[in-house]
Amino acid sequence: QDVITIAIDGPAASGKGTLARRIAQRYGLNHLDTGLSYRAVAKALLDAGQPLEDEEAAVAAAKAVDLSKADPEVLSANEIGEAASKVAVISAVRRVLVEKQRAFAQTPPGAVLDGRDIGTVVCPDADVKIYLTADAKVRAERRWREIVAKGGNVEFAAILADIEQRDRRDMNRVDSPLKPADDAHLLDSSKMDIDSAFLAACGIIDNAL
Ligand code: C5P
Q1: CA 97 to ligand 1 centroid distance, Å
Q2: Does residue 12's CB lie within 6 angstroms of at least one atom of ligand 1?
Q3: I want to staple 50 with a disulfide (CB 3.0 to 4.6 A). Which of 45, 58, 120, 177 is the partner?
Q4: Per UniProt, where does ATP bind (predicted)?
């Protein structure tokens, strides 16, 4: 195997994006936030006023996604994440996006991919798989603090409800549900800050590579 693949999966607001970015930097690998591709499809439908269940429109939007152009700033809104989890249940959309994600992973020297189904579906042969989780309340509190720090005004209870609903939708869908791969290393960051989670992840990776 000439490329290295590190898979990081986990629920919404688990901190996997930040962790994946730091790992990519540390090991000199490319990084792909695969949630952005589902978000880009959702935003295209929302902008065009098309229903999120419109399979034909969703597949067309998925085909048009350019992984290198998905802008995290534009796609970060909570409503887009929520809408993304709705288009993510459409198998035909997943097939199109997974193919692009696999091509990205194959680009030397390899990549850290974060998402929901990287270790189970996108890159089942990844060199290292980490499943990053944290209690829903802890995740909601982190997300809430982030929003408040940026001057936003939102109820903690609304954020928590949002996260719980997204967990349910992501874990219970038929195609590629969120779950740890059998050979994933579980990392629970409920009682860790990002630096400790990063150190723990590096320990797992150094041991495996
Ligand atoms: O990680 P993020 O919150 O950006 O993902 C948005 C939504 O996209 C998730 O709630 C999930 O439904 C979907 N997704 C997915 N598979 C991935 C990444 C994201 O189904 N690999």
Answers
A1: 11
A2: yes
A3: 45
A4: 10-18
Q: What is the pLDDT of residues 165-209, one digit of tens each?
A: 999 999 999 999 999 999 999 999 999 999 999 999 999 999 999
Side chain identity at 16, as an amino acid letter? K
Cα(9) to ligand 1 centroid in Å equals: 10
Split at pLDDT 50, 70, 90, the class of 13 is: very high
User: Does ligand 1 lie within 6 Å of residue 166's CB atom?
Assistant: yes
> CA torsion 94→95→99→100, rounded to 10°?
-40
Whether complex ipTM tops 0.95? yes
**How far is the first Cα of the chain from the last one, in angstroms, to the nearest whole number?**
12
- State if residue 10 touches ligand 1 by the CB under 6 angstroms criterion: no
Taking the mean position of all CA atoms in its chain, how far away is CA 34?
A: 5
